[in-house]
Task: structure prediction
Amino acid sequence: MSQAERVAYFNGQIVPESQVLIPFRDRSFKYGDGVFDMTRTFDRRIFKLQEHLDRFDRSLKYAGIDHGLSRQAITQISEEVVARNLPLLAEGEDYWLGQRVSRGVDLVGGDFWQSAGPNVIIECTPLPFKARAHLYRDGIDVIFPSVRRVPPECLSPNVKSHNYLNLIMGDLEVKSYNPKAWSVLLDTRGFLAEGTGSNVFLVKDGVLYTPKEHYVLAGVSRETVVELAQELKLTVVEEDLSPYDAYTADEAFITSTSFCICPVHSFNNKIVGDGNVPGPITKRLTDAYADLVDCDFVGQYLRHLG
Amino acid sequence: MSQAERVAYFNGQIVPESQVLIPFRDRSFKYGDGVFDMTRTFDRRIFKLQEHLDRFDRSLKYAGIDHGLSRQAITQISEEVVARNLPLLAEGEDYWLGQRVSRGVDLVGGDFWQSAGPNVIIECTPLPFKARAHLYRDGIDVIFPSVRRVPPECLSPNVKSHNYLNLIMGDLEVKSYNPKAWSVLLDTRGFLAEGTGSNVFLVKDGVLYTPKEHYVLAGVSRETVVELAQELKLTVVEEDLSPYDAYTADEAFITSTSFCICPVHSFNNKIVGDGNVPGPITKRLTDAYADLVDCDFVGQYLRHLG
Amino acid sequence: MSQAERVAYFNGQIVPESQVLIPFRDRSFKYGDGVFDMTRTFDRRIFKLQEHLDRFDRSLKYAGIDHGLSRQAITQISEEVVARNLPLLAEGEDYWLGQRVSRGVDLVGGDFWQSAGPNVIIECTPLPFKARAHLYRDGIDVIFPSVRRVPPECLSPNVKSHNYLNLIMGDLEVKSYNPKAWSVLLDTRGFLAEGTGSNVFLVKDGVLYTPKEHYVLAGVSRETVVELAQELKLTVVEEDLSPYDAYTADEAFITSTSFCICPVHSFNNKIVGDGNVPGPITKRLTDAYADLVDCDFVGQYLRHLG
Amino acid sequence: MSQAERVAYFNGQIVPESQVLIPFRDRSFKYGDGVFDMTRTFDRRIFKLQEHLDRFDRSLKYAGIDHGLSRQAITQISEEVVARNLPLLAEGEDYWLGQRVSRGVDLVGGDFWQSAGPNVIIECTPLPFKARAHLYRDGIDVIFPSVRRVPPECLSPNVKSHNYLNLIMGDLEVKSYNPKAWSVLLDTRGFLAEGTGSNVFLVKDGVLYTPKEHYVLAGVSRETVVELAQELKLTVVEEDLSPYDAYTADEAFITSTSFCICPVHSFNNKIVGDGNVPGPITKRLTDAYADLVDCDFVGQYLRHLG
Amino acid sequence: MSQAERVAYFNGQIVPESQVLIPFRDRSFKYGDGVFDMTRTFDRRIFKLQEHLDRFDRSLKYAGIDHGLSRQAITQISEEVVARNLPLLAEGEDYWLGQRVSRGVDLVGGDFWQSAGPNVIIECTPLPFKARAHLYRDGIDVIFPSVRRVPPECLSPNVKSHNYLNLIMGDLEVKSYNPKAWSVLLDTRGFLAEGTGSNVFLVKDGVLYTPKEHYVLAGVSRETVVELAQELKLTVVEEDLSPYDAYTADEAFITSTSFCICPVHSFNNKIVGDGNVPGPITKRLTDAYADLVDCDFVGQYLRHLG
Amino acid sequence: MSQAERVAYFNGQIVPESQVLIPFRDRSFKYGDGVFDMTRTFDRRIFKLQEHLDRFDRSLKYAGIDHGLSRQAITQISEEVVARNLPLLAEGEDYWLGQRVSRGVDLVGGDFWQSAGPNVIIECTPLPFKARAHLYRDGIDVIFPSVRRVPPECLSPNVKSHNYLNLIMGDLEVKSYNPKAWSVLLDTRGFLAEGTGSNVFLVKDGVLYTPKEHYVLAGVSRETVVELAQELKLTVVEEDLSPYDAYTADEAFITSTSFCICPVHSFNNKIVGDGNVPGPITKRLTDAYADLVDCDFVGQYLRHLG
Result:
């Protein structure tokens, strides 16, 4: 019998998504007290699941949360959740695949920090091809909001936690100026940090530049680009990058699990390079990325254009 | 027929708490993308509900979230939730009363920032008298963790949001040194900021000192203490306070909705004053607080001692 | 015989403005190495000239520039320049009156810092009533740009110097989002600093708040508002103000020599108060300001509306 | 007929310098709202003009100023200005060659940021050989002033703008202690930044160190030294450098368009190395520089002694 | 029999100073791991000993050092040390009186932080009237060094500890420019902090300004000036003060135990006010100070002029 | 005749240690105004004395102190002090060897900064094998205190001075939580700096990481590890390291003159790697270190276990 609703793993069982319901005293609902990780499929194949789970483990260690599952178990469940949901995927679509764990439900009458143990969810959701297709055609208009990225002395940006309000406030700020714009927050020193779940690269005189890992979540897609660049004999420099560097770059692009690589058209309304996207090095990296994942992800996005 | 389970308001209805279940794609579960406020009852009477709702409104404005309820409606619901749950309260107990609202459930396939509209919860929970009773007898041992409070240029500490991981990491750090210790985070300049939902006061030469509002959530209990101090002709100074100020204070205490006032016994294991708690000014303020709320809250806590 | 062109003082003489021409090696053209001050007339009467010249003196001392004129001389010249130009003023118009002095023309072949002595200009220009009239009707939409105000450890914001590029870059940034918007730069800690030649005030619960002088140029109009507030028995607090404070203010307004007082409609597109401008306290201060200067400056602006 | 006065390009024409006169409402006179670049001749040959024009373009892009000339045109004009002025040059002299552009003259009655279009100047001036000759004989006494360099979050130090007051205040401060001293400003973290139009290098154990580009204007002479060092198989490290690094360096030197390379004798009156200038590696680089430009620039300076 | 050598208290005994010898493994010799306080006599009477001992106690608490003496004992010893040494004092001289305690001698073979217990010294030394007399005649030339004062997040400036190297490096820096200059270090934000054992006051429009206690050691002389100012109906404001504030002050002075009040002649070679010292308010405070201590300390200094 | 007491060099003579007594007015006792360096013996052979003396020279230059001895003399004295004391060393023990110099004794009646010239001490002391032996068995429990390391803009961490109170306060803080814990202070940006006389290394995916020299004293042992790593073909990266990096490292260890290499068991009570010490790379480096110094220093420590 055909399945009418996506399923997800929830604390030991795979159930219809509508049954994955969180008690309101869960600490992740109340405090964002949880961590997650997120990969995607390419033509329905999961990409770099182990690399994502490695990072998930580091986030869990930092936060002091233990989901109690072996690596083997979480791998197998992740694969099963995708497999069970593939029949629901439309032609040419792909999934985000996420693992999420909260510290659990607050104990009533207990101390602030005590909980009844973690809530664990493994789930997938179709990628937003339609909503973002125009970005591959036009390039992304990036705006630096006035709000700064939380510094590592307060909360490590390397942890993929459920505390996203800083990034959300930055994104809402720039969308109030231009609903199509995407934010890249500056760090507390005024250098480029990151967008919501995304990394930024600049290209200048044939060299790739991207912010240091200290101030950003080092995305798996970012790491993939670094590896592809090395194969293409392109130099990649991790360095503090200023708005000046962005304004005077030859090319720029954003990486994220969902985007892979998407070109930037402008920073704060200053056109990058000659304004044509993608620039030649962005194009080479995009092609190499598509080869690696054996999926024309740009075409996949562009096919969803009105 | 007697009610066996607490009830809560959830998106238009008052239902048993076990039915207040949040879809896992709710942005507050995934991102802490929500705000809340929290007051308490004294002998079952709600304390300063309007002041809390004023702050709630400011948090909502900052976050750009609209719960769609009038002040009158949210007041009436809050009162009804408490009233409906009073029969479940044991003798000598009181309630925390909370209003929580998330930005809502992420739209699948939509843009990052789009949601299906807010989830609104109004709920109450018994205060943790037993878990904290010893703190009124012994005073709180405060430790300054190494992690610093998120600065206002990144996320306003004046907003009571669902992003608490910074405070939680600080608290877990100090509890790993001493499970009974409470954290007060320092701000990024090294001055005292705040604990998890709590404010700190120092007393020196008969004057009260507390950190400026810029770096902390200005608690309603903190404000109440300021008002009581003025009635008692005590000077209150809002100022940057250093660990030196804490170590050399004559007395110190913590305020929060649940604590009202609770004395501090030590900072980083340096005994405050002569180590006897509460100190004389803390005692006067505590008595005045109890008078104001017409409830011996200290006795209420101490009665729960082993 | 009627004068066809405005005149200005230039190094000892009053000449037609078109003859006030600066050698291109003047250090203020090359380096912004000069200071100035700027007042205005109300119904053709000069406002607080001595207060402006006091500040001018402080700027000169800081920069180590000496224009060689006595206070009496500079006062008399300023008055004469205005008087000579009044016939050119259209009905209902007023003048900006400025004193500017550069360190002078670089010595060719000399050391970097040596010059041939100061260039001194005293001039006036009609106020931009038409360009700004809508701001009194609609309120100003203020945006905080991502670029931060230069901190006092680098160059004192209290000096009215010819180095404005930091402020200009902030203003161009926000005008690229919305051509009608005005910038208020945040300082390097993320608190409100100032706009281009303007100060910002917030009103909250009947109290006026404005940033401390450490991080802003303390405008004479700002000072005038403080004095008027005291006469109106309004409390004025100089304090660090965050975007949260701006978003949650009841009213807000900008002061500057040209604006006097002009209401703010929004900060970062968050409407201030109920969105009606001016708010009641802004209105009272505006009226008091008009009384003080004996000029309905708001009406003066509004009469220039399309 | 012999030309009695240097000529310069000014908005489309080459005219005697005395006719290059700027209206006093030009935004670069009033606000330093302009950018420039500056190269020099060696034995009357222009050095790395294209590299300087590349940087000029980046400064223009950052500032949002457009001079409207093609690269070919600006090159040709620059060359012509030098050629026309060569006859005026004394034996053994050379020229600075500068391109300067302001945003233009403020529109009277318009908005703050509107101007009547750019003023463009291309000019040359004899290098100050006499004033600086002793520095090649004695080495430069560098002092770190108390004023800090403007940080990149406020105004990019990579832009060669007309806002030099921060650097000027630092230089005047140290010259008040010792008229022969030169300033190198520290950045806001206390690391070495740059002097007025100059970069600093340290030599330690045979390795060259110079501050990172983030906090300084990356001079073309600095870049030339880096290239020469690579040819000489010397390692060059761009790194944060502290006063300790300066005090304990074996050698140090300053680079600038006019200096090329000039040895440092002391930092804050602590003698560098054994006090003999130039040190051996400075000497090797100086010689290589002279070879590259085919001009004994040190001899050129020293010939102007006494 | 007349005493030929000053005596001092050393760990329980009063002995000739030449017998107060510290083992070289004492932690204060090796690490500056000690605290002290210092008062003076006026016409041989000890000034505010209890206030100094109060501060001494706070320093000891911060450092975690316990000298084991009662307040009564330390008072009595201090008085006896002065009394025993008075016969050695020349006509018109006075004493500094200091209490010093180190954590003690490192245990050989023990852990880093363990010691054999405190070394306690109480001693007096003639004030340097001759070396400083010219400062009362000419005023102090203050220079802000490039080195910044250690911030409170690293070591509280409120503690009078034996770690003075930061202040010493600042003082040596300015004395290398001008041997007669005195340093006032700026804090890490660039505001005025303090000199070596001294505080700074500015006078502007009849109001006294001095840096906040957060960034400086709040001297007893500073506190005395605050009290005298209040008696003289002068307003005193504790506030962040910038170099601009110093340059544009009407008057300025330094306070310290030895100086009491000594006028400032210049900051960074910019003359304060009209250059005549002391200014009128400085003079009134100086006279009031002399009245309070019943000693013409200015005359006392000036009598030592060559 | 057998020597009963260790001897030390003191201002020109080698004397019994009990005769190395410092006048209490010595500036290093009063202000920590001195510098030192410290090496050790391995099986009674002095390790890298010249490298330590090189650093000693840099510290002296920074502090502006001159001990007046040639390198040859200080080397010879150092060797002689060790040689003279070797007979007192128990079987299997080794010495710390230190050179210390203070600026000297304050001149009574002179200016603050004047002294009677340096006091020079060269001495040795047995290493604390017994007190620290358990650390090699169990690994070190490192805690990051709340107090931050003094930044280089205030006092260079590269100077081995007698101002250790910042480090001492950090160490006492963590020992108040756990007497066996060792501190590693964070710098003012929240990155790992150093412990008291020790450096920290992390190992991640086979690569070694250690904080940059800007924020720490670059230990000779640290440098030795870098050299050994290169011989073992291990990559070493000097980089800003966050608590996240520490928590998620595979291995970690501390280096110091006394420790050489000692494994870290936990950071802030989060176990490093699997908790077994030493980790494989730490073990390889330890073995290589032992080979280099031809001394099984780990065995040497472990033999002192209870």
In short: Chain D has a mean pLDDT of 95. The domain at 132-302 of chain D is CATH 3.20.10.10 (D-amino Acid Aminotransferase; Chain A, domain 2). DSSP finds nine helices and 15 strands in chain D. The CA atoms of residues 101 and 120 of chain D lie 4 Å apart.
